[in-house]
Amino acid sequence: MKKLNVVLYHPEIPQNTGNIMRSTVGFNAKLHLIKPLGFKLDEKALKRSAVDYYQYIDYELYEDFDDFLSKNDGEFYFFTRYGNKEPKDIKIINDKNIYLFFGAESTGIAYDILKRYYDKLYRIPTTDKIRSLNLSNTVAIALYQVSSLLNDDEIYKLEPDTLKGADFIKNIDVNDLDYKHREWR
Predict the structure, then answer these.
(1) 21-40 pLDDT, tens per residue?
(2) Does 184 have pLDDT greater than 70?
(3) How far apart are CA 144 and CA 72, in angstroms?
(4) Distance of CA 47 to CAs 5, 17, 77, 150, Å?
(5) How far is Cα 82 from Cα 110, in angstroms, rounded to an integer?
(6) Residue 127 and residue 103: Cα distance in Å, rounded?
(7) Contact assessment for residue 30 and residue 59, using Cβ atoms and an 8 Å cutoff
(8) Other Cβ atoms within 10 Å of 125 Cβ, number
């Protein structure tokens, strides 16, 4: 089965990376971080940002883009404000691993890399009032779009039974709820 991957090229904001870590866990994806990072990456910082899903984070750190390329092969899709296609245009046609690339919050992905992969540039459509969406929001949108193409059986369309279950709301007795605290009495 194809593995879904998120690649952050020079991420700068730790809160964005923490949100993206949560999204990669939620979409059964691996996270790849290409240095330099704009924050310290250690177990304490990861546990603080990842809270209750730390044990599920699958990530790898690379010295630079060439280091990443030397260790990974697959279909590459670059998300950039300069993209000439929409995520809905992605067509997955082989069994290679899939890598979704995102750039630094302030500078994006280096122009020479974008030029080299010009046919694989994607943009999430927005108005002309902003240059781009927040990085973690963009990653979440892309993960959803591409994940839906993969039909990963570990991605639940309904609330899994390992949590509250698909019929939780249908079966809930609202008279037993304390809405102030949103907990069962």
Answers:
(1) 999 999 999 999 999 999 88
(2) no
(3) 22
(4) 21, 12, 29, 29
(5) 12
(6) 20
(7) yes
(8) 8
Distance CA 16, CA 12 (A): 8
- 109-167, pLDDT tens digit by residue? 999 999 999 999 999 999 999 988 999 999 999 999 999 888 788 888 888 998 889 99
Distance CA 54, CA 22 (A): 9
Nearest CA to 107 among 7, 6, 9, 5? 9
Local structure of residue 29 (DSSP, 8 states): E
pTM score above 0.85: yes
SS (H, E, C) 118-185: HHHEECCCCCCCCCCCCHHHHHHHHHHHHHHHHCCCCCCCCCCCCCCCCCHHHHCCHHHEECCCCEEC
pLDDT at 49: 64
Q: Tokens 């994607």 sit at which residue?
A: 122
